[in-house]
Task: structure prediction
Amino acid sequence: MNLPINTILRGDAIEMLESLPENSVDMVFADPPYNLQLDKALLRPNMSKVAAVNDDWDQFSSFEQYDFFTEAWLKAARRVLKESGTLWVIGSYHNIYRVGRVLQDLDFWILNDIVWVKTNPMPNFRGVRFANAHETLLWAQKKKGAQYTFNHYAMKALNDDKQMRSDWLIPVCKGKERIRIDGKKAHATQKPEALLYRVIEASTKPGDVIVDPFFGSGTTGAVAKKLHRNWIGIEREEAYIKVAQERIDEIEAGEYQEDVFSAGVKKRFPRIPFGTLLTNGNLHPGERLWFGAKSDTHATILANGHIRCNEIVGSIHKVGKTLKNNAPCNGWTDWYFEENGERKKIDVLRQRMRDEMEK
Result:
């Protein structure tokens, strides 16, 4: 089955996730029902009604029912994630701790919890508790220890070249960004694009596939399209689908330019052991390597992929580290070979092999 990329699937989140191929997507972003447990209307001091989240999709009869629902959709999300995939889930104090417990029970490995600090939160009108000014995002990988995408330098660049922290100051949706129909919010929990921009830019690459099982007003798809990522939305409410589709259709993302949209994205290269340069005939046993562009220090390549410099025998990294008095050594850039009378870093040979693989 081919993935239905850049499409909104109408239906139940769990059923639609289970219809997708196993190990097929790079990231899941989930904004599930919060289970706010509101039992009466919220009123301002002037007795006007607050537009709170009181939709049917946020109603659960008990914590047990909510936990059952959470486990079901998280299992379905885990199945479609690649081994290198990650999952983001956002929630408030009403639900995020229950979600986090289920997340860990299902063997997800939590990488970070992000605190979205709302710079313009709704006040607590009754004055009986603190104003709720933040939400929490949990970022987890499917398999502990697996390689995953984190674009550290992109995040650093977005933060004035300082390492991005786990507290994000971003205002809630307002003004032109807030989608309204007949003056009312089209979706009660529409997330700001600035929030999804960081999430997507941090943990995906251009061309990756992102699934949002609670698509709502389509913020995930809108930002994904702008950043040249692929997306799949799942939504059961026809009214939300209409809003999201119209919103995304209006976006002109322009042509993809690698230097623009891959800035700060670390490219993953296939691992090439030094010994591969021997088996492929790029280097030969008995050939010399030089420790530096102008150094007289040299080593002999052995048939097993090790090198020998005087009495020192080992990998290109180990021998180089010993020669540098145990200082860190990257053998690929510290050792040189000779080609047409010119010394070149052996990393040149590795890059040539990678270029051949990509053809």
The radius of gyration is 26 Å. The chain has two domains: 7-261, 276-358.
